[in-house]
Specification:
3 helices
Length: 88
């Protein structure tokens, strides 16, 4: 699955695209790239988990886009599908 971070524009967001296999891998990436907010995000993820919800088809990039939200923080980014273990 592909993940792109939430940025000001699509080109900026697409420049951050990575491949992840699991929710745990995505959570680790988000925490590892969130300086100086690593502790805050790690705590919020442990407490609330990530919410991955359908967002709509994006014709510009051909993604069945899902939005990635962290309650208590906001939108973190978007994926090109649902996480395999996205049961939260």
């Amino acid at each position: 699955m592909k993940f792109r971070a939430h940025r000001g524009g699509l080109a900026e967001s697409m420049a951050t695209v990575i491949e992840v296999q699991t929710r745990a891998e995505l959570e680790k990436y988000i925490v590892d790239t969130s300086a100086p907010f690593e502790r805050q995000l790690r705590s919020l993820i442990a407490e609330n988990g990530l919410y991955v919800r359908p967002y709509g088809y994006d014709e510009r990039i051909g993604w069945d886009t899902h939005i990635v939200i962290l309650q208590g923080y906001g939108v973190l980014g978007f994926t090109d599908g649902d996480l395999p273990d996205a049961g939260r």
